[in-house]
Each structure stands twice: as structure tokens, then as C-alpha cells.
Specification:
By secondary structure, the chain is an alpha/beta fold. It folds into 2 domains: 139 residues, D-Maltodextrin-Binding Protein, domain 2 (3-Layer(aba) Sandwich), CATH 3.40.190; 111 residues, Periplasmic binding protein-like II (D-Maltodextrin-Binding Protein, domain 2), CATH 3.40.190. Helices cover 39% and strands 24% of the residues. The strands form 2 sheets. Strands 1, 2, 3, 4, 5, 6, 7, 8, 9 and 12 form a 10-stranded mixed beta sheet that branches. Strands 10-11 form a two-stranded antiparallel sheet. It is globular.
Length: 268
């Protein structure tokens, strides 16, 4: 009987403590993070859901590997073929499209390869190769890197990694842009990262608009049947928020220097 009062006191004290906010781990691409959009979305998610989203900022390839290992609860990436392979192997439950932008080709303002006049992205890359102009690749198995390699395959140039004008940075989008700026080289980037990039130097956006440069971002929950510890209920709350009106309003109004970085296309 003497233990009841101390236990009651402890129970009452615990009731006065603030509840710890729920949290999940989300692997996102460096291109998404470098856009600055996460700085807009995360506080709103915290406000609306009382959910702390802890970002692991990596390339798409690494994000998928984190999902396979169960080291994150969900992923937000942009490489559809890799995403579908991830789902087919049973590592994710489903794929929800959230937003898109496009890839663009950046290079020296004086455009020594003349890519600004190209009719297609393939032609633009062929011009860079034909003039042996320096080109910096992310080289990190990211969604951007995967897209870039798929574009080079259509050029007839062959294995670009063997060309002395082709440099692999092995880094995220921001670091790769910094490398390109330092070398005054050509580089492929997503439009959002380019617009938010502060060290443009003598670089300029020279080519865009080819439909092949479309860049879709998708949200994939990690499969709890594979990894029972993942916080699937919280992930589904986050997915509902990301595909809802609040996220649509924030994404659709996020601009830099008057330019829209992403187009929301999630279906509720």
C-alpha cells in the first residue's frame, strides 16, 4: 500500500510532460533538397501533422538502397525505371506521383559547343561531344545521373566515361554545379536546383524544352511486410498530406526570382 502514492505521483508527473512528436525517416534526392522546397514543406508538415520528417539527403540510387535495407520509412525520388524495379522486388508498397519539373543543360555563357541552337537534347549532347567541351556529370547513381546516361546512349558517342572531356563529380547536384562553375563546363541539372544555385559564375541555362527532359518525383512507402519496424501508418499520413491541398498550395507557389520550380500533379 505504501507504494501506491509514489507510483501515483510518478504517473501524475508523466502526464504533465509534453508528448514527444512522432517522427519518420524519409530519403530524398539532393536535387529536391537543393531546391529549397524542403525548407517550406517540413515546417508545414510539423504544424499540420505534428510529425517530424527527418531527411536523409542522397542520390536516388542510394535512397532506393536505404529503402531496401529498411533504413528509412519512405523515399522521394525521380527515376521511374529504378522505382518500378524497387516495387517489383517488393521493397515498396506503391508509387504516388507528387510533382515534376524538368532537366536543363547548363554551360558557359558564350556556349562554345553551340547547344543553344540544338533541336533536341540528343543533338545538344552530340555538339558537346563533337567539340570536346568539358562536361561534368554527377556520376553518383542519382536520378539525374541515370537520366543523363540514358540521354548519352542515344547520341552514338559511346562510353562517355572514357572521354577526357567528361568528368564524373561523384557528388550531389549542388556540388556538381559548383564543379561545373569552377571548370566553366557543361552540366545537366534539374531546373529547381539550377534556379536555387547561388554560385552560377559564368554559367547559363542554354538548352531546355525537349519532352525527354521531363522529371517526375514520386513518393514510395517502404513495405512493412519486408521491414515490420517501418512506421507505415505515419508514412500514409504524410502521403495524404503530400497529395492534398496544403501541399499543392505550397508547391504551386514556390518560386525563385518569379520562376516556378515544381508543378504539383498528385492525384488525391
Amino acid at each position: 500500500m505504501k507504494l501506491k502514492f509514489p507510483l501515483l505521483a510518478v504517473a501524475l508527473y508523466m502526464m504533465t510532460l509534453p508528448a514527444l512528436a512522432a517522427d519518420i525517416k524519409l530519403a530524398v534526392t539532393t536535387s529536391f533538397h537543393n531546391s529549397g522546397l524542403s525548407d517550406v514543406l517540413l515546417p508545414a508538415i510539423k504544424q499540420d501533422l505534428d510529425l517530424d520528417v527527418k531527411l536523409l539527403v542522397v542520390g536516388t540510387g542510394q535512397a532506393l538502397r536505404l529503402g531496401q535495407a529498411g533504413d528509412v520509412d519512405a523515399i522521394l525520388v525521380h527515376s521511374r525505371a529504378a522505382e518500378e524495379a524497387f516495387l517489383a522486388a517488393g521493397y515498396g508498397t506503391h508509387r504516388r506521383e507528387i510533382m515534376y519539373n524538368d532537366f536543363v543543360l547548363i554551360g558557359p555563357k558564350n556556349d562554345p559547343a553551340g547547344i543553344a541552337g540544338a533541336q533536341t537534347a540528343t543533338e545538344a549532347l552530340q555538339k558537346i561531344a563533337a567539340t570536346a567541351q568539358k562536361f561534368v556529370s554527377r556520376g553518383d547513381d542519382s536520378g539525374t545521373h541515370k537520366k543523363e546516361l540514358s540521354l548519352w546512349k542515344n547520341t552514338g558517342v559511346g562510353d562517355v566515361s572514357r572521354q577526357n572531356w567528361y568528368r564524373a563529380a561523384g557528388a550531389g547536384m549542388g556540388a556538381t554545379l559548383n564543379t561545373a562553375a569552377g571548370m566553366n563546363a557543361y552540366v545537366m541539372a534539374d531546373r529547381a536546383s539550377w534556379l536555387n544555385f547561388g554560385n552560377k559564375g559564368d554559367l547559363a541555362l542554354l538548352y531546355s524544352g525537349d519532352p525527354v527532359l521531363f522529371n517526375q518525383y514520386a513518393f514510395i512507402p517502404v513495405n512493412p511486410k519486408r521491414h515490420p519496424h517501418v512506421k507505415y501508418d505515419l508514412v500514409m499520413k504524410l502521403e495524404g498530406w503530400l497529395t492534398g491541398q496544403r501541399a499543392k498550395q505550397l508547391i504551386s507557389t514556390y518560386k525563385i526570382n518569379g520562376e516556378l520550380l515544381f508543378t504539383f500533379n498528385a492525384k488525391e
